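User: Here's a chain of 154 residues. Predict its fold as tokens.
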Amino acid sequence: MTVDTKAIEKVITIAARPETVFRLLTDPNEYVRWKGKIAQFEPRPGGKFHVDFQNEKDIVDGRFVEVIPSRRVVFTWGWKDSPVVPPGSSTVEIDLEPDGQGTRLRLVHRGLPDGALASHTEGWDYFLPRLINVAEGRDVGTDTGHHTAAKTQE
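Assistant: Prediction complete.
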């Protein structure tokens, strides 16, 4: 059976250097400042990508595919125990480009089935502003559990 998949694309500008944004995407201690509760990363091709969210039941597993310091991060993405988006079934590509004193970030999340597009779009719409705020030195507080609500729509 062939599953029709789509992609989500987001472009944002962050008033922080690409090195800062890259660290927030690949260092597990920095990552949980804007997303998730626990992150376990091996940021190299084939390395582990694992995130536990605040509610302790939503867990993402994948593998890093490509890591170019301060320029590009690609990893597979999927939810533990999900028949809709299982671990490693979709791919997130993030490109970073210097933009004046800041960074232009382009995110493309590929391989999502139609039924998962809305919840994942909502999830990125929630988390990318948190990434901007942390990168620019603002406190974002604790994740409110938004992601749990988005995932239940799958």
